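Re: weekly structure request thread

Next one in the queue (554 aa):
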Amino acid sequence: MEITAAQALVQCLEKEQVELIFGYPGATIAPVYDALHDSTIKHVLARHEQGAVHAADGYARVTGKVGVVMATSGPGATNLVTGIANAYMDSVPLVIITGQVSTGMVGTDAFQEVDTTGITMPITKHNYLVKDAAQLPRMLRNAFYIASTGRPGPVLIDLPKDIAETKIKFQYSETVYLRGYKPTFRGHPNQIAEAAKLIAQSERPVIYAGGGINSSRSSAELRALAETINAPVTNTLQGLSSFPGDHPLFLGMLGLHGTRAANLAVTNCDLLIALGARFDDRVTGKISGFAPQAGVIHVDVDPAEIGKNLPVHIPIVGDVKQVLQELLPRLEIRTDSRWLEQVDVWRKEYPLHYEVEGNLKPQYVVEKLDEITGGKAVVATDVGQHQMWVAQYYRFRRAGGLITSGGLGAMGFGLPAAMGAQIGLPGEQVILVVGDGGFQMTMQELGTIVEHQLPLKIIILNNSVLGMVRQLQKVYYNSRYMAVEFQFLPDFAMLAQAYGIKDYIMRTKEEVDTLLPQALAEPGTVLVNCLVSAEEWVNPMVPAGKAISEAIDC
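Done, posted below.
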């Protein structure tokens, strides 16, 4: 029996155990939506394609599954680009299916035609333009394999409308063979043995853990390593929540807005153990000042990242979970505490701080959020000052508890990503912390949130400015503020009411103390508008071109 390629695609999705798709329909993807009508797969209709892809991203991060997105050709596809780039930079597994104009119209500048594969080639692990309907099932099987193995990432399939309507004999391939794609999962045993020797010889080790720990679900192995060798742990932004925020070995985040204790420990260590991290510029600052005295062990599943930005003494290519499982039995328990005593001196000398008195401080809101939830909520953020305050003041005690846009730094990510995370974790507490700027970029997804009756809690740190850009203008442009102050903001309470969402407004510490626990305990969606001071800065800050040991306060 023959079926259309669109029907075959949906059957393939079912065999890949896809439970839901985020998307937005249109003419060229209509055959697939028609086939989806007869499927058990749930569809989440976003209010914008950007919302759909960010939601799939948040869903993938919290569930460990591949997020699936569908959109039509032309503007539907181009509206996905920011979310695809975000997933690519943060190593999030997505399969994106876009409609395309019929093959006879490709290249004619037809209505809603763009070169989707050309546009997305630099921001996908791989992409396909389907030219033969019979090949679609194989392409889809490959797409899921590529997206979810090695270093995870997005894979796109561009499907012309006439190809989708072509009838084929459906055959699903259980196996995958890609001659040019063979990710390495197990680290080389000799390299792991050398790493164990170097760890045993070190006196001042620091563990530098990135997003790869969360991707590989290896928080338990990271903790075992730290406790075995008695080494302090610092996280990248994407690595936060992979190590308990209240653990005595935890230094906090490092880098541009990292803690001084973390930055000084890295600067003075004699061994840096980098796990699932890529030494990006926000972490390293001036390269010559980053861990200048240290031997470097770098474990990463992506060989292209090893040695790319920093020379490495012992490279280990492999899945960080498997590498740590093989490394741990080779290590002896370390009891020497002299290095930790020095680290504690830096902790006490350079704590995170802000002036509590005066107007409501955003840092206080985050601290209170941490206190109420015990650090065990899933917290999504948008991008900006509020993101850094969450990174600094929320002490994550739940593995994989942070959902944020790191590499791309995409404003507008927070609300749809939190929505996707809440859909993926229906019985759990998901909280969005967002700025007034980023919230306005995708606030139309409130409609999707209400439609699906999600109990998402939305905390807007509302300072009426684009805070991070304003901070940059203060530091680098002599406080010549330009285009960073909102002369008009919507009434967020009335907006919430228009969607039937419960709302709170908080202007003081006392209101936060009284009302925030109440807001978080509400059963449905809640929007909390915290009116905070615009004169708060993210401190400390490493100036451009400086080493991470040269942080300043604004």
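The chain has a mean pLDDT of 97. The domain at 362-531 is CATH 3.40.50.970 (Rossmann fold).
Next request, please.
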